[in-house]
């Protein structure tokens, strides 16, 4: 019903808008970062995350954590790293709380690898990534990957240059995965996920982290047919009906299927949707707590966009609603509000078998 991964050729009635979004360059090229001139040449300055412009560029003047607080957090994380297994086994609630507060940027790569167990996977497969790189790979996947490289965060300094080191490493990772899992091959939504990982760690580490995301965190999401994302779409819509009936009724009224808007959100883990500060906080929680975070963030977004009469007055049809969901304004959701809302405790809705625990994630904060 849904997709062939080869180019994501999908039913136009369901997925055309989503695929345009995944394949597009991000039509916000006019929104660029500040420039300066050095010896007559224009030099574009990046924001603190490496963005040169675009919708995820962060303006200066954001609230910064005080140096002494940031250093204190770093020391706490370094202490956890020394006895990681004990912390995860005996004090996981504390680990979770610190992930929700935000992992220090200097330690994010190590933390993501430890939380996902990809570090352990890498150590158990020493030399495997290089072995995969040496293999030729299937031409059909390599052609699609090659075409997708320039579409991943074109406003980020790491991927802005065609054929640059960022795009080369991205190609290496995605090609290696098609050889590592030939039964799955390549899915376009893997590219932005791999790109985010590369912003934080070397290619080999990013590869094993991608493997964990595909196999441990979001199993079946990137497989041909995408049955897993369809099933989770039904679960998500059911949860929406109970958490934000107003948004649910609006989407139901205009026959807006969850797969139309949640595919990019879930499969890309919001990396193409949210302001970058929010993206990193979501990924911190995701690596710690799993897929339930993706569901919670999706519900929070719909509540923010469609959860009041005033907001719905501006959205009088399917087209207006889809445009709003595909192009969520950075002003719609702030980092602190998002994290707070994601951490809110809800009642348990269903048992594990009937609704994937309804992500009984709502009973635990």
What does it look like?
This is Rab-GAP TBC domain-containing protein. It comes from Anabas testudineus. Residues 102-290 form the Rab-GAP TBC domain. With 365 residues, this protein is mainly α. Helices cover 57% and strands 3% of the residues. It is built from 20 helices and four strands. It has helices at 12-23, 67-82, 84-90, 92-101, 108-116, 118-124, 128-134, 139-148, 165-180, 190-198, 203-217, 227-243, 245-253, 258-267, 276-289, 292-306, 309-313, 318-326, 335-342, 352-355; strands at 3-4, 9-10, 35-38, 41-44. A two-stranded antiparallel ribbon has the order 1-2. It has a two-stranded antiparallel sheet with strand order 3-4. Strand 3 (35-38) and strand 4 form a beta hairpin. Helix 3 crosses helix 4 (92-101). The radius of gyration is 20 Å and the shape is globular. It starts with a strand and ends in a 10-residue tail after the last helix.
Characteristic key phrases:
Cyclin A, domain 1, 3% strand, globular, single chain, 20 helices, mainly alpha, 365 residues, two-stranded antiparallel ribbon, 57% helix
Helix-strand blueprint:
Blueprint: E1 3-4, E2 9-10, H1 12-23, E3 35-38, E4 41-44, H2 67-82, H3 84-90, H4 92-101, H5 108-116, H6 118-124, H7 128-134, H8 139-148, H9 165-180, H10 190-198, H11 203-217, H12 227-243, H13 245-253, H14 258-267, H15 276-289, H16 292-306, H17 309-313, H18 318-326, H19 335-342, H20 352-355
Antiparallel strand pairs: 1-2, 3-4
Helix pairs in contact: 1-14, 3-4, 4-15, 5-15, 6-11, 8-9, 9-10, 9-11, 10-11, 12-13, 12-14, 12-16, 15-16, 15-19
